[in-house]
Amino acid sequence: MTTTQFAFVPATKEQTKIRAAFTGPPGAGKTYTALKIATHLGESIGVIDTENGSAAEYSSEFTFQHLVMRHYAPQDLMHAIAAANQAGLGTLIIDTWSKFWNGVGGVLEQVDQLSKGGNKFATGWKDLRPVEMAMIEAITSYPGHILVTMRSKVAYEVQTNSSGKAVPVKIGLKPEQREGVEYEFSLIGDLDRDHTMTITKARAHTLDSRIIPRPGEELAQELLAWVNEGVPSPTANSLRDQALAADVTVETLRGLLTEGRKRGLLGAPVIDPATEQPTTLGDLITRRGKEAASLAA
């Protein structure tokens, strides 16, 4: 290993895609807000619906493709994301991502099953953590915009209303997902029961700590302006298309593997046209490398 592998280069802002998460208690308007913002991003919209198909209630107001899921294994979510990519959906909403944490077949249930009543950290988490990280990588490397919703753990506190009477008020707390999940997104917006969003994290500094009543078009346009700044950058799909070229060489595929690793795209979910089954960009490039090497020999 040489120091040339760790060469520093001038920083350049590249164009990217929106990675936003909206949290809040029941009734805060997470699904509606995600659809409202997605509609103003100018892309075709897909919704992965874990809420008994409830997103369809908004189909008279918003146009989107709809996938209802009732089993919430992270492995299934990765397959659904691959299908969304194959369908060319420019914006994907996962509503709600919390189900893949604590729902039927989700991360917590699988950890319990793997540990079989034993030490969860020695068995269950050790086996499932790579799957969980692969799910996160599938989300963050999607070639289009990603909006996820997360439930907040609900609690009540006593507040004084406009009449001076003490009443219990429902408030949202910590999102129902693993600790530190906010690091995976460029924007986190917390919605309250009045549908007002408080932005608790934003890589676009002009949005940080903003309080936005009933967010929609304005927020969408600000997010688009921020992600479209900079120079174009490769996507998982552009690397996939190069790997699938009929005349691709082993040397080119090695370069694609390096590029995908550098950009964190090797875990991006894609459909392998040879098998018509979900796979990852890294595995697809590796398969094509073996084919090209065999032909060269």
Give a short overview:
With 297 residues, this protein is of the alpha/beta class. It contains nine helices and eleven strands.
Instruction: Count the E strands.
Output: 11
Instruction: Please report the distance between the alpha carbons of the first and last residues.
Output: 29 Å
Cα gyration radius (Å): 21 Å
How many domain units?
2
β-strand percent reads: 15-25%
- Going by helix content, strand content and strand pairing, the class is alpha/beta
- CATH third-level topology of the largest domain: Rossmann fold
Helix content: 25-40%
Our count of helices gives: 9
Mean residue pLDDT:
91
The CATH architecture of the largest domain can be named as: 3-Layer(aba) Sandwich
Q: Could you describe the largest sheet, including whether it forms a barrel?
A: 9 strands, mixed
Order of helices and strands: EHEEHEHHHEEEEEHHHEEH
Low-confidence stretches: none
CATH class of the largest domain: Alpha Beta
Walkthrough of the structure:
It comes from Nocardiopsis exhalans. Residues 16-217 form the AAA+ ATPase domain. Keywords: ATP-binding, Nucleotide-binding. The chain has 297 residues and is an alpha/beta fold. The chain folds into two domains: 19-227, Rossmann fold; 232-296, no CATH class. The protein is built from nine helices and eleven strands. Strands 1, 2, 3, 4, 5, 6, 7, 8 and 9 form a nine-stranded mixed beta sheet that branches. Helix 2 (74-86) runs parallel beside helix 5, helix 7 runs antiparallel to helix 8 and helix 7 (236-243) runs parallel beside helix 9. The protein is globular, with a radius of gyration of 21 Å.
